[in-house]
Every structure is written in C-alpha cells, then in structure tokens.
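In response to the reviewer comment on reproducibility (Comment 2.3), we provide here a single inverse folding case reported in full, input and output, so that an independent group could reproduce the run without further information from us. The structure tokens appear first.
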C-alpha cells in the first residue's frame, strides 16, 4: 500500500550555473516522474541554495527506507549537496477510517453520554 510522502530538502554549493537544473535531473533520476515538486533558488553568503518541496505517493513506510533509496539512487554530488531534510510519511490504511467501524464509535459515544 502506498504512503503519502512529504519531503523537504535543502541543497547548497558554491555558486555555479545550472544548480537548479542539476537538482531537477537528480530528482527525476531518483524518484522518476511520479512526484510533484517545487524548487526555490537563493544565493546567499557566497552559497547557492536550492530548497526542494516534494509531494508524492510512494512505497516507503519510513524515513529509513527513503534515506536508503536516496543513497542507492542519488549521485555522490547529490548527497554532498544535501545539507538538510525534513520527511513526513503518512501510511495509508485499508478501508474507511483506518479499519475502524464508524457506526460502532457513534454507538459507543451515545451509550457513554447516556450515563452523564
């Protein structure tokens, strides 16, 4: 079952033309075309900075699995440029309300409130 994945990456390097495109190429190589991203590019204190906000449905269930995927599929440059990240993984559960029965919950609440 796929999970909703939200990744925020911060890449930095000494300014050189084409950093944004290099990051885009790496993201395509690592994740393919199934993800959605937004890139913001800054130059500050003699450093070029790219912030990548990535949203996708993926097979990963943990941060550890995503890190392994990055190490296996990213180039050494990509991993060197990556200076910070934030990951949120929301596993999708089968069925309505993550497998709980909503009617049973409503009945339980009704029965509990009858004693108040």
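Designed residues, in position order:
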């Amino acid at each position: 079952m796929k999970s909703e994945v939200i990744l925020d990456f911060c890449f930095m390097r000494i300014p050189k033309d084409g950093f944004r495109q290099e990051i885009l190429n790496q993201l395509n190589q690592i994740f393919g075309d199934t993800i959605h991203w937004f890139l913001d590019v800054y130059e500050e204190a003699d450093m070029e900075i790219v912030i990548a906000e990535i949203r996708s449905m993926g097979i990963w269930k943990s941060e550890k699995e995503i890190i392994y995927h990055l190490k296996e599929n990213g180039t050494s440059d990509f991993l060197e440029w990556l200076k910070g990240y934030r990951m949120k993984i929301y596993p999708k559960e089968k069925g309505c309300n993550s497998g709980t029965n909503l009617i049973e919950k409503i009945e339980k609440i009704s029965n509990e409130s009858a004693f108040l």
